[in-house]
Inverse folding.
């Protein structure tokens, strides 16, 4: 299992071979053994195999080809809809129309998503997380017919790998691990931590292609711009209100 985790790489190209239902269900069952707040399991997983449904999802994920090419697309959702209905049927009034509950359900959804991914990789399948899900939550809600109380959190494409890409880089362990208390970073620490990442050939290529002074500017000025972050934040807040997580 440790080797599976250490060997992780993102797979964006898949063969035409299908993932049979028995294998997929075994993977999903393993995923659902993930830790969950209060054993509530306030998440749902929408499995998409249908080509027409993928056509609807594709533009909502900025037309990334994995949506159409992967045999399976999994959308992991924060879901208090089911739990709320159970509560009301048992004469228990739920109080989950708030930000904390959304965060709780989001954590649940992400934990099960990662379990599913590790289980899939253990079986030889490849996966790719799509970060576009929360950007386009409203459209995905419509495409997947998600009711009030359900919000898409992340999407994973899954299938048999048709590529063996190199692993992407990771910061050294000392960059992210703090012993006992948080140790803030000096300028020297930052320079040391990011030195290898900045020296990579692909990093230097990104800087050159985008006509920037540094890799950091590629992130702040091109990939994850302030204006985009603010725009999608406003959109997500509207979704939270519409889906019942920001009731006054």
């Amino acid at each position: 299992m440790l080797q599976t985790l250490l060997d992780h790489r993102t797979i964006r190209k898949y063969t035409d071979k299908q993932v049979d239902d028995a294998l997929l269900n075994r993977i999903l069952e393993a995923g659902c053994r993930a830790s969950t707040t209060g054993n509530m399991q306030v998440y749902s997983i929408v499995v998409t195999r249908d080509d027409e449904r993928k056509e609807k999802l594709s533009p909502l994920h900025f037309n990334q080809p994995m949506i159409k090419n992967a045999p399976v697309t999994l959308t992991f959702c924060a879901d208090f809809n089911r739990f709320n209905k159970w509560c009301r049927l048992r004469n228990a009034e739920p109080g989950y129309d708030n930000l904390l509950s959304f965060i709780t359900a989001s954590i649940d959804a992400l934990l099960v998503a990662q379990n599913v991914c590790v289980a899939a990789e253990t079986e030889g399948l490849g996966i790719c997380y799509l970060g576009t899900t929360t950007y386009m939550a409203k459209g995905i809600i419509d495409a997947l017919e998600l009711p009030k109380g359900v919000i898409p959190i992340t999407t994973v494409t899954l299938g048999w790998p048709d590529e063996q890409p190199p692993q992407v880089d990771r910061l050294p362990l000392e960059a992210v691990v703090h012993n006992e208390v948080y140790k803030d970073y000096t300028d020297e620490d930052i320079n040391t931590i990011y030195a290898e990442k900045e020296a990579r050939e692909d990093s230097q290529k990104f800087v050159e292609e985008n006509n920037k002074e540094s890799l950091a500017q590629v992130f702040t000025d091109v990939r994850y711009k302030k204006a985009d972050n603010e725009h999608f934040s406003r959109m997500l807040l509207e979704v939270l209100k519409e889906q019942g997580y920001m009731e006054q």
User: Anything to note?
Assistant: The longest helix spans residues 99-122. The domain at 2-165 is CATH 3.40.109.10 (NADH Oxidase). The longest strand covers residues 150-159.
